């Protein structure tokens, strides 16, 4: 409370001594509550929870008013009787913070009561220049400032209620529009002005009680901004939130942009709540009727809230039923799909078994064919090996003959030219035979490759065999030609 006006604090502490109009203007609130309860029992449209909630709110207001009426009676008695003892000696000294909270709570009760009563007489449509409404905002501002921590900055100490009110935007996403509108207002520059504009907009939206309830429920976050003994952190804050619900019956049309909210001085005007008791005795019946109407509007507002809640729950129930039906349909479709997949799996298993049997049969046939081809290849290779051995023997024999011929050529110098020609012919024949041998080797390699291909291609085995037979015939012809050539050479020699 570093930056509060000391005059304001004194005025708040002297409220029990100055409220002389409470005893005369307020009848027995318990009797009024009983009459309201009797009227509500006859009306079958009200439900049990609404009546119990209204009864608790009425008892809270009645207990507060009776408490301060008793205080006023004690103050009047003390004025007419001599002071026989020192109050510091007769009673225990109270904590100043507790007294401040009690005074602020009492002023909040009185301001809300006067605001509701005056709004009923004016048709419940208020503007920003209405004095009871202005005093209500002043009292609410003092309640929010109570126990507020001071933040030190480069300029100096700053103490504003805008910081805790900004938390409501995170706790209630629906209040984001109000906070955004307040920040975008060009005429407001201070945090206090933004807080006042936010309270004006929340009252017009009829959500100020809901927003403050969400804020007070998060005392772990409020501890960053308030001292432990602050009004918002104690039970008085919860009582104030309960009283703010009654303001939902008020229709307010407040022009926030045209007002200077930054420089307004928040001083509580107690003259509005202090009246002559003799002038208020004639309005006892009007006060009863006003209290009954206030309670009626309060209960109507509660009923509206409950109706909205029931509507929302019904909508959620409908959406859940639709979602459940969709899930059932999806489950049915999934079950059908699973059955179809099982049938398809059985069919695939049967097809797999058939394919496996067919592949085994083909494998057996292919194995038999490959064995037959292998046997044919072995026989062919054996014949080719024999042929190669014969040709090799012939080659050795020819080589021996050539050596003998060379010896004879050395002996027969006179027949050198003829021998050279014969040698050239022999060399030519030898080269041809070597080429034939190379060709035979290449043919052998081709036969090997063909045999490997025959393992995979059974149908080409016949053609390969025929080709090999033709090659054999050609080789035989060549062998016959070679024998004839050898005979000619022998004859020439």
Give the topology.
Elements lengths: L5 H8 L1 H4 L2 H5 L3 H14 L5 H33 L6 H4 L5 H26 L3 E3 L3 H15 L5 E2 L4 E2 L3 H10 L4 H9 L6 H15 L2 H10 L1 H4 L12 H10 L6 E3 L23 H4 L3 H128 L4 H41 L4 H32 L1
Parallel strand pairs: 1-4
Antiparallel strand pairs: 2-3
Describe what this molecule looks like in 3D.
This protein has two domains: 6-79 and 91-275, RUN domain (Methane Monooxygenase Hydroxylase, Chain G, domain 1); 318-492, no CATH class. The protein has helices at residues 6-13, 15-18, 21-25, 29-42, 48-80, 87-90, 96-121, 131-145, 162-171, 176-184, 191-205, 208-217, 219-222, 235-244, 277-280, 284-411, 416-456, 461-492, and strands at residues 125-127, 151-152, 157-158, 251-253. With 493 residues, it is mainly alpha-helical. Mean pLDDT is 77; it is low at 1-51, 53-58 and 64-91. The longest helix is centred in the last third of the chain and has 128 residues, at 284-411. The strands form two sheets. A two-stranded parallel ribbon has the order 1-4. Strand 2 and strand 3 form a beta hairpin. Residues 303-387, 423-492 form a coiled coil. Residues 20-34 have a biased composition (Acidic residues).
